[in-house]
Design a protein that fits this description.
Alpha-Beta Plaits, 473 residues, alpha/beta, Rossmann fold, 8-stranded mixed β-sheet, binds iron/sulfur cluster
Amino acid sequence: MGKSNVYWMDAHSDSTETSLVAKMLTVFDAANLDELVKPNDMVAIKIHCGEWNNSAYLRPVYARALADRIKELGGRPFVCDTTTSTYSPWGSRSTELDIVLTAERNGFSSATLGCPFICADGFIGTSDIRIDIPEGYLLKEAYVAQAIAAADTLITLTHFKGHGMGVIGGALKNLGIGGQSKRGKFNVHMGGHPTYGFGAAGTFHPEAFKGKANTPDWEIIENCCPFGLWNIDENDELHWSRDKCANCLGCFGVVGPRGIVDIPEINFDAVDVAIADAALAVEKAVGRDKVGYINMALDISPRCDCANHADIPIVPHLGVFASKDPVAIDMACVDAARRSVGMPGSATEVMEAHHSGDRKFEAAAATFHGQSEVATINTGHENGLGSRDYQLIEVERAAPDKYRFPYDRRPSRERFREKFIQFEPFPYDRHDGHGFDRNVEVDIEAMKVHYEDATNGHHVVDESEVLAPGDDD
Ligand code: SF4
Protein backbone atom coordinates (compact mmCIF):
# COMPACT_ATOMS: atom_id res chain seq x y z
CA MET A 1 0.00 0.00 0.00
CA GLY A 2 1.36 3.42 -0.95
CA LYS A 3 1.20 6.68 0.90
CA SER A 4 -2.17 8.08 1.88
CA ASN A 5 -2.98 11.76 1.78
CA VAL A 6 -3.74 13.53 5.02
CA TYR A 7 -4.97 17.10 4.75
CA TRP A 8 -4.20 19.45 7.60
CA MET A 9 -4.64 22.99 8.87
CA ASP A 10 -3.03 24.27 12.06
CA ALA A 11 -5.07 25.55 14.99
CA HIS A 12 -4.24 29.25 14.66
CA SER A 13 -7.19 31.47 13.98
CA ASP A 14 -7.42 35.17 13.15
CA SER A 15 -10.58 35.42 11.09
CA THR A 16 -13.87 33.71 10.36
CA GLU A 17 -12.38 31.63 7.55
CA THR A 18 -9.63 30.42 9.90
CA SER A 19 -12.01 29.55 12.72
CA LEU A 20 -11.74 25.90 13.67
CA VAL A 21 -15.26 25.30 12.37
CA ALA A 22 -14.31 26.76 8.99
CA LYS A 23 -11.06 24.81 8.97
CA MET A 24 -12.95 21.57 9.61
CA LEU A 25 -15.11 22.25 6.55
CA THR A 26 -12.12 23.38 4.52
CA VAL A 27 -10.18 20.15 5.09
CA PHE A 28 -13.40 18.16 4.52
CA ASP A 29 -13.53 19.57 1.00
CA ALA A 30 -9.76 19.40 0.44
CA ALA A 31 -9.77 15.68 1.23
CA ASN A 32 -12.67 15.24 -1.22
CA LEU A 33 -14.91 13.90 1.50
CA ASP A 34 -17.71 15.86 -0.14
CA GLU A 35 -17.54 13.38 -3.01
CA LEU A 36 -18.62 10.59 -0.63
CA VAL A 37 -22.07 12.15 -0.24
CA LYS A 38 -24.63 11.53 -2.99
CA PRO A 39 -28.16 12.99 -3.09
CA ASN A 40 -30.50 11.20 -0.65
CA ASP A 41 -27.64 9.34 1.02
CA MET A 42 -28.25 8.63 4.70
CA VAL A 43 -25.04 9.98 6.18
CA ALA A 44 -23.92 8.93 9.66
CA ILE A 45 -21.71 11.41 11.49
CA LYS A 46 -20.04 9.33 14.20
CA ILE A 47 -19.06 11.39 17.20
CA HIS A 48 -18.23 10.78 20.85
CA CYS A 49 -20.91 12.60 22.84
CA GLY A 50 -18.86 12.61 26.06
CA GLU A 51 -19.44 11.01 29.44
CA TRP A 52 -21.41 12.78 32.19
CA ASN A 53 -19.22 15.66 33.48
CA ASN A 54 -16.56 15.21 30.81
CA SER A 55 -15.73 18.57 29.28
CA ALA A 56 -13.10 17.84 26.62
CA TYR A 57 -15.40 16.28 23.98
CA LEU A 58 -15.88 18.17 20.73
CA ARG A 59 -18.24 21.12 20.92
CA PRO A 60 -21.54 20.27 19.18
CA VAL A 61 -21.04 23.11 16.69
CA TYR A 62 -18.60 20.95 14.72
CA ALA A 63 -21.17 18.21 14.17
CA ARG A 64 -23.81 20.86 13.39
CA ALA A 65 -21.64 22.56 10.77
CA LEU A 66 -20.81 19.21 9.20
CA ALA A 67 -24.48 18.20 9.15
CA ASP A 68 -25.34 21.49 7.43
CA ARG A 69 -22.63 20.86 4.84
CA ILE A 70 -23.97 17.35 4.19
CA LYS A 71 -27.45 18.77 3.69
CA GLU A 72 -25.99 21.22 1.17
CA LEU A 73 -24.63 18.22 -0.70
CA GLY A 74 -28.08 16.60 -0.77
CA GLY A 75 -27.45 14.03 1.95
CA ARG A 76 -29.61 13.20 4.98
CA PRO A 77 -27.29 13.47 7.97
CA PHE A 78 -27.73 12.02 11.42
CA VAL A 79 -25.29 12.29 14.30
CA CYS A 80 -24.71 9.13 16.29
CA ASP A 81 -22.87 7.40 19.10
CA THR A 82 -23.27 3.95 20.68
CA THR A 83 -24.09 2.56 24.10
CA THR A 84 -21.08 1.76 26.22
CA SER A 85 -20.04 -1.24 28.21
CA THR A 86 -21.08 -0.93 31.83
CA TYR A 87 -17.47 -0.01 32.45
CA SER A 88 -18.24 1.74 35.71
CA PRO A 89 -20.94 0.98 38.27
CA TRP A 90 -22.18 4.51 37.58
CA GLY A 91 -21.76 4.94 33.83
CA SER A 92 -23.99 7.43 32.01
CA ARG A 93 -24.24 6.00 28.50
CA SER A 94 -24.93 2.28 28.86
CA THR A 95 -28.47 2.36 27.43
CA GLU A 96 -30.13 4.43 24.75
CA LEU A 97 -32.15 6.17 27.44
CA ASP A 98 -28.98 7.14 29.29
CA ILE A 99 -26.87 8.14 26.31
CA VAL A 100 -29.58 10.36 24.85
CA LEU A 101 -29.92 12.15 28.19
CA THR A 102 -26.16 12.54 28.50
CA ALA A 103 -25.79 13.66 24.91
CA GLU A 104 -28.49 16.30 25.40
CA ARG A 105 -26.80 17.55 28.58
CA ASN A 106 -23.56 17.79 26.62
CA GLY A 107 -25.30 19.74 23.86
CA PHE A 108 -26.18 17.13 21.25
CA SER A 109 -29.85 17.17 20.26
CA SER A 110 -31.85 17.61 17.08
CA ALA A 111 -32.35 21.26 18.06
CA THR A 112 -28.62 21.97 18.23
CA LEU A 113 -27.53 19.65 15.43
CA GLY A 114 -30.22 20.44 12.88
CA CYS A 115 -30.63 16.69 12.38
CA PRO A 116 -31.43 13.71 14.62
CA PHE A 117 -29.07 12.40 17.28
CA ILE A 118 -29.28 8.61 17.18
CA CYS A 119 -28.11 5.87 19.51
CA ALA A 120 -26.75 3.63 16.78
CA ASP A 121 -26.91 0.25 18.52
CA GLY A 122 -30.39 0.25 20.03
CA PHE A 123 -31.85 0.44 23.51
CA ILE A 124 -29.50 -1.97 25.28
CA GLY A 125 -26.78 -2.13 22.65
CA THR A 126 -27.64 -5.33 20.83
CA SER A 127 -28.87 -3.82 17.59
CA ASP A 128 -26.04 -4.72 15.24
CA ILE A 129 -24.85 -6.73 12.29
CA ARG A 130 -22.13 -9.39 12.41
CA ILE A 131 -19.31 -8.79 9.95
CA ASP A 132 -16.74 -11.45 9.02
CA ILE A 133 -13.17 -10.17 8.99
CA PRO A 134 -10.90 -12.98 7.78
CA GLU A 135 -8.23 -10.30 7.26
CA GLY A 136 -8.30 -9.49 10.97
CA TYR A 137 -5.05 -9.73 12.90
CA LEU A 138 -6.79 -10.88 16.08
CA LEU A 139 -10.55 -10.64 15.53
CA LYS A 140 -12.25 -12.72 12.88
CA GLU A 141 -15.69 -11.17 13.30
CA ALA A 142 -17.12 -7.94 14.64
CA TYR A 143 -20.56 -6.60 15.58
CA VAL A 144 -21.17 -3.22 13.99
CA ALA A 145 -23.86 -0.89 15.30
CA GLN A 146 -26.95 -1.12 13.09
CA ALA A 147 -27.46 2.56 12.30
CA ILE A 148 -23.82 2.92 11.26
CA ALA A 149 -23.84 -0.24 9.15
CA ALA A 150 -27.10 0.82 7.50
CA ALA A 151 -25.80 4.28 6.55
CA ASP A 152 -24.91 4.95 2.92
CA THR A 153 -21.97 7.12 3.95
CA LEU A 154 -20.07 7.49 7.19
CA ILE A 155 -18.15 10.57 8.28
CA THR A 156 -16.07 9.79 11.35
CA LEU A 157 -15.77 13.05 13.24
CA THR A 158 -13.22 12.37 15.93
CA HIS A 159 -11.91 14.27 18.90
CA PHE A 160 -8.27 13.15 18.86
CA LYS A 161 -7.01 12.64 22.43
CA GLY A 162 -5.48 10.03 24.72
CA HIS A 163 -7.13 6.90 26.07
CA GLY A 164 -6.27 4.84 29.13
CA MET A 165 -6.83 1.52 27.40
CA GLY A 166 -6.35 2.39 23.72
CA VAL A 167 -3.46 4.79 24.48
CA ILE A 168 -4.74 7.06 21.69
CA GLY A 169 -8.36 7.90 21.10
CA GLY A 170 -8.43 8.64 17.39
CA ALA A 171 -10.34 7.69 14.25
CA LEU A 172 -9.53 4.00 14.69
CA LYS A 173 -10.93 3.95 18.20
CA ASN A 174 -13.97 6.00 17.17
CA LEU A 175 -14.96 3.07 14.92
CA GLY A 176 -13.15 0.13 16.53
CA ILE A 177 -14.92 0.76 19.83
CA GLY A 178 -17.43 3.52 19.11
CA GLY A 179 -18.77 1.88 15.95
CA GLN A 180 -19.39 -1.44 17.70
CA SER A 181 -22.55 -2.45 19.50
CA LYS A 182 -22.36 -3.40 23.15
CA ARG A 183 -21.81 -7.04 22.19
CA GLY A 184 -19.21 -5.81 19.70
CA LYS A 185 -17.42 -3.98 22.51
CA PHE A 186 -17.32 -7.18 24.60
CA ASN A 187 -15.71 -8.84 21.58
CA VAL A 188 -13.07 -6.10 21.16
CA HIS A 189 -12.40 -5.98 24.90
CA MET A 190 -11.60 -9.70 24.76
CA GLY A 191 -14.60 -10.90 26.76
CA GLY A 192 -14.32 -14.68 27.09
CA HIS A 193 -11.01 -14.81 25.22
CA PRO A 194 -9.01 -17.81 26.47
CA THR A 195 -5.68 -15.94 26.52
CA TYR A 196 -6.25 -12.20 26.60
CA GLY A 197 -9.59 -11.94 28.39
CA PHE A 198 -9.76 -10.41 31.85
CA GLY A 199 -11.26 -13.64 33.13
CA ALA A 200 -8.40 -15.67 31.71
CA ALA A 201 -5.47 -13.35 32.33
CA GLY A 202 -6.41 -11.55 35.55
CA THR A 203 -4.70 -12.84 38.70
CA PHE A 204 -7.34 -13.35 41.40
CA HIS A 205 -6.41 -12.76 45.03
CA PRO A 206 -9.50 -13.83 47.03
CA GLU A 207 -7.56 -13.34 50.26
CA ALA A 208 -7.47 -9.59 49.56
CA PHE A 209 -11.15 -9.49 50.56
CA LYS A 210 -11.12 -9.16 54.35
CA GLY A 211 -14.75 -10.02 54.98
CA LYS A 212 -17.93 -7.96 55.12
CA ALA A 213 -17.26 -6.71 58.63
CA ASN A 214 -13.94 -5.19 57.54
CA THR A 215 -15.30 -3.89 54.24
CA PRO A 216 -17.95 -1.23 54.91
CA ASP A 217 -18.77 -0.88 51.20
CA TRP A 218 -18.64 -4.62 50.45
CA GLU A 219 -21.94 -4.47 48.55
CA ILE A 220 -20.35 -2.62 45.64
CA ILE A 221 -18.13 -5.64 45.00
CA GLU A 222 -21.18 -7.75 44.24
CA ASN A 223 -23.09 -4.90 42.60
CA CYS A 224 -20.46 -3.75 40.12
CA CYS A 225 -20.93 -6.70 37.77
CA PRO A 226 -23.99 -6.64 35.48
CA PHE A 227 -23.59 -10.41 34.98
CA GLY A 228 -23.51 -11.09 38.75
CA LEU A 229 -20.10 -12.78 38.64
CA TRP A 230 -18.83 -11.52 42.03
CA ASN A 231 -20.37 -13.22 45.08
CA ILE A 232 -19.64 -13.42 48.79
CA ASP A 233 -20.77 -16.74 50.26
CA GLU A 234 -22.10 -17.63 53.71
CA ASN A 235 -18.51 -18.18 54.91
CA ASP A 236 -17.68 -14.58 54.04
CA GLU A 237 -15.46 -15.68 51.16
CA LEU A 238 -15.32 -13.91 47.80
CA HIS A 239 -15.86 -15.86 44.58
CA TRP A 240 -15.41 -14.78 40.98
CA SER A 241 -17.06 -16.70 38.13
CA ARG A 242 -14.23 -15.66 35.86
CA ASP A 243 -15.08 -18.15 33.10
CA LYS A 244 -18.19 -16.09 32.30
CA CYS A 245 -16.45 -12.70 32.30
CA ALA A 246 -17.59 -10.58 29.36
CA ASN A 247 -14.89 -7.96 29.92
CA CYS A 248 -17.37 -5.18 30.51
CA LEU A 249 -14.69 -3.45 32.65
CA GLY A 250 -17.33 -2.74 35.30
CA CYS A 251 -15.33 -4.18 38.17
CA PHE A 252 -11.89 -2.84 37.20
CA GLY A 253 -12.20 0.24 39.36
CA VAL A 254 -13.67 -1.76 42.27
CA VAL A 255 -11.56 -4.92 42.54
CA GLY A 256 -8.39 -3.49 41.01
CA PRO A 257 -7.56 -0.81 43.61
CA ARG A 258 -8.41 -3.29 46.43
CA GLY A 259 -5.84 -5.81 45.17
CA ILE A 260 -8.54 -8.43 44.56
CA VAL A 261 -7.52 -8.86 40.91
CA ASP A 262 -4.38 -7.71 39.15
CA ILE A 263 -5.65 -6.06 35.96
CA PRO A 264 -3.67 -7.80 33.19
CA GLU A 265 -1.60 -5.58 30.92
CA ILE A 266 -1.91 -8.17 28.14
CA ASN A 267 -5.67 -7.53 28.05
CA PHE A 268 -5.05 -3.86 27.28
CA ASP A 269 -2.43 -4.67 24.63
CA ALA A 270 -4.78 -7.13 22.93
CA VAL A 271 -7.63 -4.59 22.92
CA ASP A 272 -5.34 -2.04 21.26
CA VAL A 273 -4.74 -4.53 18.45
CA ALA A 274 -8.39 -5.61 18.19
CA ILE A 275 -9.60 -2.03 17.80
CA ALA A 276 -8.06 -1.85 14.31
CA ASP A 277 -9.71 -5.11 13.25
CA ALA A 278 -13.09 -3.89 14.46
CA ALA A 279 -12.59 -0.57 12.65
CA LEU A 280 -11.96 -2.54 9.46
CA ALA A 281 -15.28 -4.31 10.02
CA VAL A 282 -17.07 -0.93 10.13
CA GLU A 283 -15.57 0.08 6.79
CA LYS A 284 -16.62 -3.27 5.34
CA ALA A 285 -20.15 -2.81 6.66
CA VAL A 286 -20.58 0.68 5.20
CA GLY A 287 -18.42 0.26 2.10
CA ARG A 288 -14.64 0.67 1.88
CA ASP A 289 -15.01 3.73 -0.36
CA LYS A 290 -17.84 5.36 1.60
CA VAL A 291 -16.08 6.38 4.81
CA GLY A 292 -14.30 9.65 5.48
CA TYR A 293 -12.36 10.84 8.51
CA ILE A 294 -11.91 14.15 10.27
CA ASN A 295 -9.66 14.34 13.34
CA MET A 296 -9.99 17.45 15.45
CA ALA A 297 -6.75 17.44 17.45
CA LEU A 298 -7.89 20.00 20.02
CA ASP A 299 -8.14 19.88 23.84
CA ILE A 300 -5.97 16.78 23.76
CA SER A 301 -6.80 15.34 27.15
CA PRO A 302 -4.87 12.31 28.38
CA ARG A 303 -8.03 10.33 29.07
CA CYS A 304 -10.81 9.60 26.64
CA ASP A 305 -14.10 11.49 26.50
CA CYS A 306 -15.58 8.35 28.12
CA ALA A 307 -13.99 9.49 31.41
CA ASN A 308 -16.25 11.44 33.78
CA HIS A 309 -13.69 14.26 33.92
CA ALA A 310 -11.12 15.88 31.65
CA ASP A 311 -7.55 16.67 32.68
CA ILE A 312 -5.32 19.46 31.37
CA PRO A 313 -4.50 18.86 27.67
CA ILE A 314 -1.13 17.13 27.30
CA VAL A 315 -0.06 19.13 24.24
CA PRO A 316 -1.38 22.35 22.68
CA HIS A 317 -3.98 22.16 19.90
CA LEU A 318 -2.42 20.34 16.94
CA GLY A 319 -4.92 21.33 14.28
CA VAL A 320 -7.57 19.84 12.04
CA PHE A 321 -6.96 16.76 9.89
CA ALA A 322 -8.97 14.98 7.17
CA SER A 323 -8.35 11.85 5.14
CA LYS A 324 -9.96 8.78 3.62
CA ASP A 325 -7.49 6.63 5.55
CA PRO A 326 -8.04 6.14 9.31
CA VAL A 327 -4.59 4.64 9.83
CA ALA A 328 -2.80 7.51 8.13
CA ILE A 329 -4.82 10.21 9.88
CA ASP A 330 -4.15 8.74 13.33
CA MET A 331 -0.47 8.32 12.49
CA ALA A 332 -0.29 11.96 11.44
CA CYS A 333 -1.83 13.05 14.73
CA VAL A 334 0.50 10.90 16.80
CA ASP A 335 3.48 12.29 14.89
CA ALA A 336 2.26 15.85 15.42
CA ALA A 337 1.93 15.25 19.15
CA ARG A 338 5.39 13.78 19.24
CA ARG A 339 6.85 16.82 17.46
CA SER A 340 5.06 19.17 19.85
CA VAL A 341 6.21 20.21 23.27
CA GLY A 342 4.01 19.16 26.17
CA MET A 343 1.58 21.47 27.92
CA PRO A 344 2.90 23.02 31.17
CA GLY A 345 1.24 21.49 34.21
CA SER A 346 -0.14 18.55 32.25
CA ALA A 347 0.49 14.84 32.65
CA THR A 348 3.28 15.03 30.06
CA GLU A 349 5.20 17.38 32.35
CA VAL A 350 4.45 15.23 35.39
CA MET A 351 5.78 12.19 33.50
CA GLU A 352 8.76 14.21 32.13
CA ALA A 353 7.66 13.49 28.57
CA HIS A 354 7.03 17.10 27.62
CA HIS A 355 9.96 17.52 25.22
CA SER A 356 9.60 17.54 21.46
CA GLY A 357 10.30 13.98 20.37
CA ASP A 358 8.88 12.33 23.48
CA ARG A 359 6.12 9.74 23.06
CA LYS A 360 3.41 11.73 24.77
CA PHE A 361 0.56 9.22 24.86
CA GLU A 362 2.61 6.29 26.10
CA ALA A 363 3.84 8.47 28.96
CA ALA A 364 0.73 10.45 29.82
CA ALA A 365 -2.29 8.49 28.61
CA ALA A 366 -1.53 4.76 28.81
CA THR A 367 -2.55 2.87 31.93
CA PHE A 368 0.48 0.58 31.85
CA HIS A 369 4.10 1.27 31.10
CA GLY A 370 4.78 -0.79 28.00
CA GLN A 371 1.56 -0.04 26.12
CA SER A 372 2.26 1.33 22.65
CA GLU A 373 0.74 4.43 21.08
CA VAL A 374 1.17 2.85 17.64
CA ALA A 375 -0.17 -0.68 18.28
CA THR A 376 -3.60 0.07 16.82
CA ILE A 377 -2.04 1.97 13.92
CA ASN A 378 0.36 -0.87 13.12
CA THR A 379 -2.50 -3.38 13.23
CA GLY A 380 -4.57 -1.24 10.85
CA HIS A 381 -1.60 -1.16 8.50
CA GLU A 382 -1.17 -4.92 8.81
CA ASN A 383 -4.82 -5.89 8.26
CA GLY A 384 -5.17 -3.71 5.16
CA LEU A 385 -7.41 -1.04 6.65
CA GLY A 386 -4.98 1.72 5.70
CA SER A 387 -1.40 2.86 5.58
CA ARG A 388 0.79 4.34 8.28
CA ASP A 389 2.79 5.96 5.46
CA TYR A 390 1.25 9.27 4.58
CA GLN A 391 1.76 12.58 2.85
CA LEU A 392 0.79 15.52 5.03
CA ILE A 393 -0.70 18.27 2.86
CA GLU A 394 -1.24 21.71 4.35
CA VAL A 395 -4.48 23.28 3.16
CA GLU A 396 -4.91 26.96 2.24
CA ARG A 397 -7.43 29.01 4.14
CA ALA A 398 -10.74 29.52 2.37
CA ALA A 399 -11.83 32.81 0.82
CA PRO A 400 -12.84 35.41 3.46
CA ASP A 401 -16.51 35.40 2.48
CA LYS A 402 -17.02 31.64 2.35
CA TYR A 403 -17.85 31.03 5.99
CA ARG A 404 -19.66 34.24 6.87
CA PHE A 405 -23.07 34.06 8.56
CA PRO A 406 -25.06 32.34 5.82
CA TYR A 407 -28.64 33.35 6.53
CA ASP A 408 -28.34 36.97 5.35
CA ARG A 409 -25.26 37.97 3.40
CA ARG A 410 -26.21 41.63 2.87
CA PRO A 411 -23.90 44.20 4.55
CA SER A 412 -25.14 46.22 7.52
CA ARG A 413 -26.79 49.22 5.86
CA GLU A 414 -28.92 47.03 3.61
CA ARG A 415 -29.92 44.82 6.53
CA PHE A 416 -30.48 47.40 9.27
CA ARG A 417 -31.05 50.93 7.92
CA GLU A 418 -34.84 50.69 7.75
CA LYS A 419 -35.05 48.82 11.05
CA PHE A 420 -32.93 51.43 12.80
CA ILE A 421 -35.21 54.16 11.49
CA GLN A 422 -38.24 52.25 12.72
CA PHE A 423 -36.73 51.22 16.07
CA GLU A 424 -34.05 53.88 16.72
CA PRO A 425 -31.48 52.15 19.00
CA PHE A 426 -29.31 55.28 19.60
CA PRO A 427 -30.91 58.18 21.55
CA TYR A 428 -29.63 61.07 19.39
CA ASP A 429 -32.21 63.32 20.99
CA ARG A 430 -30.48 63.19 24.41
CA HIS A 431 -27.39 65.01 25.80
CA ASP A 432 -26.79 67.28 22.82
CA GLY A 433 -26.79 64.35 20.48
CA HIS A 434 -24.21 62.39 22.51
CA GLY A 435 -26.96 59.99 23.49
CA PHE A 436 -26.09 58.95 27.07
CA ASP A 437 -25.27 60.40 30.48
CA ARG A 438 -21.47 59.96 30.98
CA ASN A 439 -18.44 61.89 32.36
CA VAL A 440 -16.74 63.91 29.68
CA GLU A 441 -13.27 62.86 30.75
CA VAL A 442 -11.72 60.55 33.42
CA ASP A 443 -8.21 59.30 34.25
CA ILE A 444 -8.25 56.10 32.20
CA GLU A 445 -4.48 55.58 32.58
CA ALA A 446 -4.96 55.21 36.35
CA MET A 447 -7.17 52.17 35.77
CA LYS A 448 -4.49 50.44 33.68
CA VAL A 449 -1.85 50.26 36.46
CA HIS A 450 -1.10 46.80 37.87
CA TYR A 451 -1.60 46.59 41.63
CA GLU A 452 1.94 45.31 42.27
CA ASP A 453 3.42 48.28 40.37
CA ALA A 454 1.41 50.67 42.53
CA THR A 455 2.53 48.93 45.75
CA ASN A 456 6.20 48.17 44.98
CA GLY A 457 5.67 44.52 44.25
CA HIS A 458 3.36 43.69 47.10
CA HIS A 459 -0.01 42.06 46.84
CA VAL A 460 0.88 39.48 44.19
CA VAL A 461 -0.68 36.24 45.42
CA ASP A 462 1.87 33.45 45.14
CA GLU A 463 1.51 29.73 45.80
CA SER A 464 2.38 30.08 49.49
CA GLU A 465 -0.72 32.22 50.01
CA VAL A 466 -3.18 29.75 48.45
CA LEU A 467 -5.26 28.14 51.17
CA ALA A 468 -5.66 24.38 51.03
CA PRO A 469 -9.20 22.96 51.23
CA GLY A 470 -10.44 23.38 54.82
CA ASP A 471 -7.78 25.92 55.83
CA ASP A 472 -10.27 28.77 55.66
CA ASP A 473 -12.35 27.38 58.55
S1 SF4 B 1 -16.28 -9.80 36.16
FE1 SF4 B 1 -16.17 -9.36 33.97
S2 SF4 B 1 -18.29 -9.08 33.37
FE2 SF4 B 1 -18.22 -8.86 35.60
S3 SF4 B 1 -17.89 -6.67 36.00
FE3 SF4 B 1 -15.86 -7.60 35.91
S4 SF4 B 1 -15.26 -7.31 33.78
FE4 SF4 B 1 -17.47 -7.08 33.84
